[in-house]
């Protein structure tokens, strides 16, 4: 097992596409590290560079203490699970699992033992004699995972391994992967563009955008204090309300008279935007204390909660998350107020967190 | 009025007749289709049937006027003549057939051995100006062979490849490699590169990964491509007649053509050798027909 160190990674494809602009990652030994970002931001490319399937244009990659820039994939001792599983179609499950071991030249008895162990971990025993096309998507994915762990590699790389599964199965597999990683204690780099997956899996999350790292932090840090306007708009569903504010009397004042608690140490001379989570706002009866008059534009009832879209005279409508017991009809006159602590505040110019 | 329960609830096929107009047009179309297809089949198959008939008729019956369609005596003499010379020993035609087998076989194997890895490389690697290169490769096939036959002849004369089986093998290979690359690239594109990626992570080199994982999945495609290449080489006439002259080297197409043109033409022999010539390709295509269809449709769907 080993940590992974990526320094100043830059990848330009021969056709001129810059897939990774500049990426620094420092992944600890035994960590479950998630790379999250929109489509095309360079997640797969970064992962493939770590695996050695793609040669970076510049930058260094270290696995453990070894600089692996020049090492072929076979010598990096890592396992990867692909979005399309890549199980060898002409081999039965048993042989698919045994394959990497036979490649290493392990003795037959040990191959058997390790295959059986991996099959037990992923509950594959009844499927050992089937070929990939006789397996369901979820089963194929379990085989792919088993094939990755049968080798006991120094690290796992996962490229959106759950994308092709339906929602329920995805949730199950997520739990399973997390549990497995905890049990084995093997470093794992997990790529996804699904923030729920990222939040629930990751010890730490790196948010990538256009080939750059926007933020690295624990799920809580990433959720509470997105490091940039991009992260603020990317994380959470619905994401933060971005409200233009001015500092006045030690408070933040938005349009429509909405006041928010100001965090300490704000610069005075710059245009600011406050990032307010939908759950830090409240829809109340019109005229309620500290509230500003507003109108419900629409309400999305999600079962256990309601997302209200509310017009309070600001430039943009805001979204408010309320328990489903609080009901207002569309077009109802309401009061809107801020109920959380000081919000994250961003500089409009640099798009970065200032306080 | 008694309505049987069965009738009342039966979800089975409704006995009602479909609207008569539609039925008539449906049947009318079928009749027309069958009639047209029959006519077409007769017209298209007649030369083939006539060839087969002629090959088993005695010479007398071949020239009979009016032509004898059914009541002739069956003989296999012509087939014997294809393989056995009149004085005993091997006939020159049989030598030509052997030459054809060698030339077509070797050139197909060469084209496959060269073309498949090339197709793989074009499919998997970032090659500089890949599109232009592929277009150039394809463009070599735009030109009809007869256009280059004189230059090739002059070049071959310089290097002593005239009237030489190697000369034919080389030129057929050169013509089949571009075709093989193009057709095989379609097949390789269909095989996800992840198989090779996974194999490389499992400890194989790139070439091993190709040989062990991609190649087995390409077998249907290779079979289909090879059959097409084989048919081209087997049937090729222009280069064969320009570049070879002696009976020892000549392939079957010019040899069979050479049977026509004397003072008398032994049509029975011409027909018999034509049948013998056509058979191997038919048999081979029949044997790999599953791969051919799978291959052609698979290759046709480009991602
Ligand atoms: N082989 C390649 N040649 C040229 N450009 C490529 C190649 N592979 C990827 N790219 C480009 O590089 C950029 C990053 O691609 P990458 O596959 O790393 O994105 P990603 O973050 O994994 O996206 P997704 O979530 O859609 O999988 C994209 O703009 C893509 O078009
Ligand atoms: Mg990707």
TrEMBL record, chain A:
It holds the Pfam family TOBE_2. PROSITE patterns: ABC_TRANSPORTER_1, ABC_TRANSPORTER_2. Signal peptide: none annotated. GO terms for biological process: carbohydrate transport. The keyword ATP-binding applies. The keyword Cell membrane applies. GO terms for cellular component: ATP-binding cassette (ABC) transporter complex, substrate-binding subunit-containing. GO terms for molecular function: ABC-type transporter activity; ATP binding; ATP hydrolysis activity. Residues 4-235 form the ABC transporter domain. Keywords: ATP-binding, Cell membrane, Membrane, Nucleotide-binding, Translocase, Transport. PANTHER family: MALTODEXTRIN IMPORT ATP-BINDING PROTEIN MSMX, TREHALOSE IMPORT ATP-BINDING PROTEIN SUGC. This is Sn-glycerol-3-phosphate import ATP-binding protein UgpC. It comes from Actinoplanes auranticolor.
TrEMBL record, chain B:
It comes from Actinoplanes auranticolor. The chain crosses the membrane at residues 31-52, 97-122, 134-154, 166-184, 213-234, 267-288. Residues 1-26 are annotated as: Disordered. Belongs to the binding-protein-dependent transport system permease family. Keywords: Cell membrane, Membrane, Transmembrane, Transmembrane helix, Transport. One of its GO terms (cellular component) is plasma membrane. It comes from the Bacteria. It is found in: Cell membrane. It is a multi-pass membrane protein. InterPro entries: BP-dep_ABC_trans_perm, MetI-like, MetI-like_sf. This is ABC transporter permease. Residues 97-288 form the ABC transmembrane type-1 domain.
